Amino acid sequence: MENRALILFAHGARAESWKAPFERLRDMTQRRMPEVKVTLAYLELMEPRLQPQVTALVATGATDITVVPVFLGQGAHVLRDLPLMVDELRLIHPSVTITVSGAVGEDPDVLKAMTDYCVKAARP
């Protein structure tokens, strides 16, 4: 049986308070998927970074890891930087399946939820 893990991959920021919504997202996701280890990793400025997080998950037995870029769009970090990092991780951990989804903000359901929020915010 494969040991699955999900990494929510965010950019990172200097302000520690920036983590809070991502931690809530992680916790909410974990509650909906108790059979999958749900973690966070950051591109820069915050810890843990992606490579140490994958290594830690593999050390606990993860064999199937999905990385979800928690970005609004598919910019350079998602299109260029992340694939390079994942290619390196696949070389380091050849027995582990690492899958990357599209940026969360490009999903039609996420866009609809954001639109609903914007419309609600604009109504008196």
Automatic annotation (TrEMBL):
<dbReference type="InterPro" id="IPR050963">
    <property type="entry name" value="Sirohydro_Cobaltochel/CbiX"/>
</dbReference>
<keyword id="KW-0456">Lyase</keyword>
<dbReference type="Pfam" id="PF01903">
    <property type="entry name" value="CbiX"/>
</dbReference>
<protein>
    <submittedName>
        <fullName>CbiX/SirB N-terminal domain-containing protein</fullName>
    </submittedName>
</protein>
<dbReference type="InterPro" id="IPR002762">
    <property type="entry name" value="CbiX-like"/>
</dbReference>
<keyword id="KW-0479">Metal-binding</keyword>
